Predict the 3D structure of the following.
Amino acid sequence: MSDALLDVRALSKSFGALRATDRVDLDVREGETHAIIGPNGAGKTTLIGQLAGNLRPDEGRIRFAGEDITTLAAPARSRKGLARSFQITSIYREFTALDNVALAVQAHAGHSFRFWRPARAEAQLRDPARAILEEVGLGGRADVLAANLAHGEQRQLEIAMVLATRPRLMLLDEPVAGMGTDESQRMVRFLGTLKGRRTMILVEHDMDAVFTLADRISVLVYGRIIASGTPEEIRANPEVRSAYLGEDTED
Amino acid sequence: MNLILLIEQALNGLQLGVMLFLMAAGLTLVFGIMNLVNLAHGSLYMVGAYLATAFYQWTGSFLAAVPLALAGTLAVGVVVEVVALRTLYERDHLDQVLATFGLILFFNELIAIIWGRAAIYAAAPPWLSGHVELFAGLRYPLYRLTIILVGVAVAFLLWYVVARTRLGMLIRAGASNRTMVAALGVNIRLLYTVVFGFGAALAGLAGLMAGPIYAVQPGMGEEILIVVFVVIVIGGIGSIRGAMAGALIVGVVDTLGRAFLKPALATVLSPSAADTAGPALASMLIYLLMAVVLAVRPEGLFPARGGG
Amino acid sequence: MSTVAAPNLQPAPPPERAREKRQRVVIVALFVLLAAVPPIATAFGQPFYLDLFRRIMIFAIAALSLNLILGYGGMISFGHAVFLGVGAYAVGVLAHHGIQSGYVQWIVAIVASALVALVIGAISIRTSGVYFIMITLAFSQMLYYLGISIEEYGGDDGMRLTVRSQFPGLVNLDNGTAFYYLVLGILVLFTFLVHRLVNSRFGMVIRAARSNEARTRAIGFSPYAYRLAAFVIAGAMCGVAGALFVNHTSYLTPDFMNWTRSGELMFMVILGGMGTTIGPVLGAAALLLLEDFLSGWTVHWQIILGPLLVLAVLFAKRGLAGLLPGGGRDE
C-alpha cells in the first residue's frame, strides 16, 4: 500500500473530550476516486481540514506521493499538488470568474513578486484560465463578478479553481452542496469526465453522486473509519447499513 | 542599588500593574464578549479622573466623590454604549477603530471645553496622604498602598463574579462562543450593556484613583490606553487571567526599568551615554517585551480561546 | 498568425473598461486642477492656498501609502504615522549634524523607513485582526516615546529645520512654487506606481489575501511575504512624505508620529474611498479642508469633527471616490 498517492496512518485529533478523528487509516491510489461518507457530525470536515493542512493532527501521519506532509501548511500542500474545494463556497467575490481562476493559475505559474506588469495582461495566466472555465461550463460567464454568479455556478467556479492549480490530488468537500437536481447531475457528469484522469477524494452526502463516481468508499462514523471498500462491499456491509444508510434494516 | 529602593519600586510597579489591570480587564471583557475594539476606553478613564476631582472639590469629601464619580462614569459609559456603540457590534474592526477614535476626539475636546487644556490639580484626601511604615526602613505612601489593596479587592471580586455567578458564567461562555450564547436565548443586548457598564466602571475606578498620582489632563486616557494594549497583547485577548498577568508584568517591568535602567547602564557606559540611552531604552522596554512575547507566543500568555 | 479563423473567445469589452477610462479622466482632471493652484493663488494674491494645497498633497502621499496596505491589503495598520516621523527625523537629524544634501537625506529617509517597516512588519504581520491593530499602534508609540526622550533632537518640543534639503542643480525648495510642483510630481509618480503595483501579480495576491484569506492559502499562496513586502513599500513611501513634511513645516516634532496622526491618515483613506486610485487625494483634501474650515469657526473644532467622523464611518463607507463618475472600488 506504500505506493498509494495519499497514505494516512493513525490520524487522530481531539477537541477537549471529543475525539473528532480517531485513528483514521486511509489510502488513495493514483487515478482513484475515493469517496468519504458518514452521518452528520462524523468528523468529515475535521478530517478534510487535516488532509488539506488547515488543522494540525494530534497524532498520526500523512504521506503524499511518498513524502511526509503531516506538518506542512496549506499553501505548501497546494504547491505540492494537493488541492481542495470548500463545502461553503469560498471564492473571491469582488473579482470576476476569470480573475478568480487566473489567480489560481498564477499561484502555480512561477513567483508572484512581479510589481509592474498588469497580471490581467498576462496570456500565460488568462488563456489557461479561460480554457478551464470552458471546461467546467462557465466559459460564457468569464467576465461576471463572482458575487453575481448563481449558487450552482459558484460551485462550478470552486471546482475550476481547484483544477487551475493542476493538482495531483483533488479534495472535494461536498461539491454538489446546495445544488438543485439538474445542477447536481451536471456536476456529477462533469466530475465523471475527470474520473481516471485525476485522483479525487470526494466528501459527499449525495448518495447518487457517491455511488456513480466512487471507485472506493470509506465510511466515517464518530471519527472512525468503520468500513472501506468498493461501493458493492459498502452497500452490503451490515455495520454501515445500520450506522448510516438506514436504521430500518429489517432484513 | 539598595534593597529598600528595590522594594519600593517593586511596589510602585505593583500599583501601576493594578491600575493597568482595572483598565485591561474592562477592555478585554468587552472585546472577548462583544468583539468590540473600543479605543474610547481611555476616555472613560479620563472621565473618572475629572469627575472625581470635580466632585471632591464640590463636596469636600473624598468618600462622597468616589461613588459619585463611579456612578457618573458608569452613566457616561452606558449612554455611549446605547447611543454610539450598539451599531458597531455588527461592524468590522476597522469601523470600530475609526468610530471610537472619533469618540476620543469628542471627549478630549469636551473635557477641554469644560476644564481647559492644562492639567488640573487633583489631591489625595488628607487622611490618605502620608506614609505607612511597612517594615524597618521602608516608608511607603499610604495612597499608593490603598490603590494596591483596592486593586486586589477588585481582582478578587472579578474572580468571584466570573467564576461563581450566573453572570460570570454567561461571560465565560460568551468569551469562548458568542453565537452560542445568543442562540441560547439570553438577552444579548442587556448582557452587552451590563458588561460594557462593568468595564466603564472599572475604567472610571482606575481614573479616579489615578488623579492624585498622574496628570489629569485631556488626552490622559490615550497615554494609558496604549500601555493597556500592550498588557492585553502580552496577556492574551479575552481573558481576565491574561489581563492580570500582563498587567503585573508590564507594571513591574516598566517601573523597574525607568528606575534602574539608567544607573544600571551607567555601570557599563559613560554617564552621558547612560543619560540618553537610559530613559530612551526604559520608555521602549515594555514594547520590546511585547515583541519578545509575540515572537514566542503570538496569542499571548493566557488567551481566552486557547487550544483547549 | 494563423490563417484559420479561430473561434472568438474574446469577450466584448466589459463595462469595467469604460469605468476605468472614466476614472482615468477624473484623476487627470484632479491633477491638472492641483497644477493650476500656484498660478491662481499668485494671481489672486493668496499664497496661503499654495501652502494649504501643498500640505494636502503631502498628506495625500502618506494616505496613498496607507491605502496600499489598508485599502487594498486589508491590513489595519494603526501606526502608519510612525513612518512620517522616521522620514522627517532622518532629514532633520542629518541637517542638525550638518548634512544638508537632499539626496543623502532623502535616501536615508527612504532606507530608514523601509527598515523600520521591515522590523515592525515582520513581527506584526505574523498576527492578525485585533492583535495587528494593537501591535502596530504600540510600536509606533514606542518610537514616539523614543523621539520624546532624545533631548539632543529637541525631545518633546522638537527642533527647527534651519535649512531645507538642498538639491543643487535640481530644485530649490525655498522657492514655494518649485517645492509645490516637486510635491505634485511625487504625488503623480506615486499614484502611478501604486496603480501599477496593485494590478501586478504582486498586487493581485495582496488583494486576494484581503478578499478571502482561506481561499488564497488553499490555492498555494503564503500571504506573509507579500504582505511584508507591501508593508515595507508603504513605509518607504510614507517616509518620503515625512521628508517632504519636515521641509514644508521647517519644524520637526515627535508629534508627527503620534497615534492621532495615524488615525487621521486612516480617516483620509476611508473618507476618500478605500482601495481606489484617487481616494487618498480626495480624502486628504476633504479632511484637511474640513479641519481648516472648522478651526476657523471655533478653537474647539475637534468636538464637531469627532462626531462627524463617527457618522462618516457609520453611513458613508464607500467614501468620496464612490460619488464620482467611474468611482468605487478598483476591481
Observations:
- The first helix of chain A runs from residue 44 to 52.
- The longest strand of chain A covers residues 18-28.
- The mean pLDDT of chain A is 89.
- Chain A has nine helices and ten strands.
